[in-house]
Amino acid sequence: MAGTRTFTMIKPDAVEKGHIGGILNMITEGGFRIVAMKLTQLTVADAQQFYAIHKERPFFGELVEFMTRGPIVAAILEKDNAVDDFRTLIGATNPAEAAEGTIRKKYATSIGENAVHGSDSDENAAIEGAFHFAGREQF
Ligand code: UDP
């Protein structure tokens, strides 16, 4: 059975441009309940660990630099079929390929600076959520 929680980050590009409110509106209107949320900033070590799967890719250095250059909003979201439904709401990694009505279509500017993260599995959702939030911060 698909899990009911996913983890998201509103990335530094979208925070810098003042899109926190707009993105949170799309998330809640999409039927997701906010379980936990904070404004925080990733360290270089955090970002290298978070994106370790991409460490051999040519864009890895740029990705770590981007993700650490300013604050992010980290949040845990709840909904039936959370991981897949949230990936649908955010749209394709490359905003040029993102469907109409998706968060990345509206707010992302490039394949790197693409406004939001969404976990790609229930297992990663649990790992990523637990990295940012203690149990008592989850409602
Ligand atoms: N990314 C990038 N260049 C690429 C592909 C990905 O800078 O060619 C960045 C982008 O910020 C993306 C993140 O690396 O969101 C993780 O990539 P992934 O393929 O896991 O995409 P996602 O799951 O975020 O859609």
From TrEMBL:
Transmembrane segments: none annotated. InterPro entries: NDK-like_dom, NDK-like_dom_sf, Nucleoside_diP_kinase. One of its GO terms (molecular function) is metal ion binding. Its main location: cytoplasm. Its cofactor is Mg(2+). It holds the Pfam family NDK. Residues 3-137 form the Nucleoside diphosphate kinase-like domain. It comes from the Bacteria. Major role in the synthesis of nucleoside triphosphates other than ATP. The ATP gamma phosphate is transferred to the NDP beta phosphate via a ping-pong mechanism, using a phosphorylated active-site intermediate. Belongs to the NDK family. This is Nucleoside diphosphate kinase. It comes from Flavobacterium fontis.
